[in-house]
Amino acid sequence: MNVIETKNLKKIYSQGEIKVNALNDVSVNFKQGEFTAIVGPSGSGKTTFLNTVGGLDKPTSGNVMIDNLDITKLKANKIIDFRLRNIGFVFQSYNLIPVLTAKENIEFIMLMQGYSEANRNERALELLDAVGLSKEAKRRPGQLSGGQQQRVAVARALASKPKFILADEPTANLDSTSTKNLLDIMYDLNRKEKMTFIFSTHDQRVIDRAKRVITLEDGKILSDKTT
Amino acid sequence: MRQIIKIAWRNVWRNKLRSFIVITSMVLGLWSGLFSASMMSALNNQRINSAIKSQLSHLQIHHPSFQDNFDIKYQINGLNKVLKALDENKKVNSYSSRIVLSGMASTARGATGVKLIGADHTNEINITDIHSHIVKGTYFSGGTSRQAVIGQELAEKLKLDIKKSIYLTFVNEDGSQERLKLKVVGIFKSGNSIFDGSHMFAQKDYLDKIFGKEDIIHEIALVSNDINQAKELKDELLKAFPDNEIELWSEISPELGYANEMLSFFLYIFMTIILIALSFGIINTMLMAILERKRELGVLMSVGLNKSKIFLMIAMETLFISIVSVPLGVFLSYVTISYFGDVGIDLSMVEEGLEQFGMGTRLYTELYLDYYINITLLTFLLTFISSLFPARRALKLEPAVAVRSI
Lengths: 227, 406
Fold this sequence. Notes:
Chain A is of the alpha/beta class. Chain A contains seven helices and ten strands.
C-alpha cells in the first residue's frame, strides 16, 4: 500500500523575471517501510521535493496524496496539524530547540499532540535509549556533539509515531563514525518498526545503505532503482 | 501551554547581556518616569497645600455678591444659624469668621492695593498657617488692638518695618471713605510672594469697634476633618443655606483646581510617552531575537507548532521581560520616592522662582498608589502591544525557507 503518492508535481520559483523549475512533473509513490534516498546534484530539486511532500511548501501544480488525503488542498492551520501528527522531520543542521534538553526536545512533539506526562516520559526515555543517548537526556543541544544532536533529532522525529520520516541531508555535517551510528539507528528502526524513511543526500555512505535510490536532475526523475 | 511558557522563559535568558540591557533600560525608564512624576505631583500638591493653608482653607462661605467687588455691605446671610450649623457639624474641624476689607494700604513711602483680613486669631491659627511663617516681630500680641501682621513683599513695597504705621483706606457701607491706622507687629513670609504682597491681617475686635457692631462677617473660612470630605460638606451646607455662596478651594482658586486636574492627566501622558519610547526598545530587541532565531522558528512551525502558539510564545517572551522589569522599576521608584518623601529635595537654588508659585524650597516627593497600579497595568498593555509587531514578523516566516536560514 502506498503511503505517499505524488502526481505531476510541479514547483516553479520566480527569481525576478527568471522562472526556475525546481520540480517538473514528478510522479512517484512510496510504500510503507521503504528506506529511500533521493539523490542528485545541488539544485536538482531534492529539498524542494521533500518540502513539498512534507507540506512545508505548496506545489505550483500537482498533488501530494498521503494515505489518500491530498495535503496540497489543506488550509494552513490544518497542514500544521497534519505535519504534527503524521510526518517526522530530520534537518541537515539538527535544528533542535536550544533551550530544551535532549529529552525535552523529544517530548515537545508529544506534548503538542496531547500525550500524558507519563507516556511522554516513557516514550522519550525509550527513544533516547534507542539512539544510544540515555545518559545525555538532561543535556541541552549546545552540550552535545553534532552526531549526538542528529540522533536526538531522529528520536524527536520518531516521537510522535509518524507515518514516515523526511530527512534532508541528515549526515551532511557528521563525521564518518557519527554517520555510521546514525544510519545504523535509522536502519534498525526501519527494519524493526517498519518506519518509512525518505532521505535527500549526497553522501555515498547513505546511498549505499538505501533500499531504493531516486535520482533527480533539473527537477525531473532521472532514475528510480530498488536494490 | 506549560511547554510554551517554559520555552519563552528560557528564550528570555538565552542572551543574558541583551536581556539585562533591555530590562535595565525598562527599570531605569520606569524609575525616571515615576520619580519625575512624583516630583511634579509633589510640586503641585505643595502649591495647593500652601495655598489652602495660607489663603484658601477647604471651604469658604460668603454673601453671593461679596466677591464681585468686596463691598462690605454684603455680609453672610443668617450668620448665627450658619455658625450654629458649623459648630454642630462633625465634618467641620475648625472655622474662622472674618471681616474682609479691600482697600488701599499706604505709608509715607508708597501705596498699594491690599486685602485686610480681620479675624479672631485664636481661631485663625487653626485655619491658616501664617502664624508659623513670621519672619520678623510676632503674630499679634498684647497691648494695642490696632495691630497688623503684613506680608514681607508688602513690607518691602511700602518700606515698612516692625512698629511702623500703615494706613488702610476703604469704602464704608454708606459709600464714604474710611481710613484705619494700624501698627505693624509682625511680618510673614508664606512662600507665595503674590499673596505676601497683597495681604495683611488685623484683629477682628478692633474692626468691630470701628464698625460699632460685632456681627459683621464677610467670610467664614473652614477646614474639614479630611479634604476629601470638603465636597460633601459643601453640598450639605449649600442645601441648608442656599442664600449664601459656598465654595471649595478649587472653586475659589480655579487655576489651582484646573492645574490639579491637568496634572493628573499630564502625568499619564508623560508616562505614556516614556513607555512608548521603551516599547520601541522592546520591539527592537524582540525583532533581533526573532531574526536570529528564524531557523528555530521554522523548525517549530515544521514540527507542528501552529501560528497561535508561535504568537503566544513571542508574546510571553515579551511579557516576561516586563514581569521582571516592572516590579524592579516600581520597587526602585517606591524606595526613592519614599526616601525623598521623608528627607526632601533641596531646591533652594531656585527659591525665588518657586516662591512666585507659592512653593517652598524643600520638595517632598509623593505619588499615589493608584498611579503606581495604573502605570504597571499600562506598562503591561504597552508591552503586549510591543510584542505584536515581532510576533507578526515571526508568523510571516515560511517554514521551508526559515529552516534553511543561517
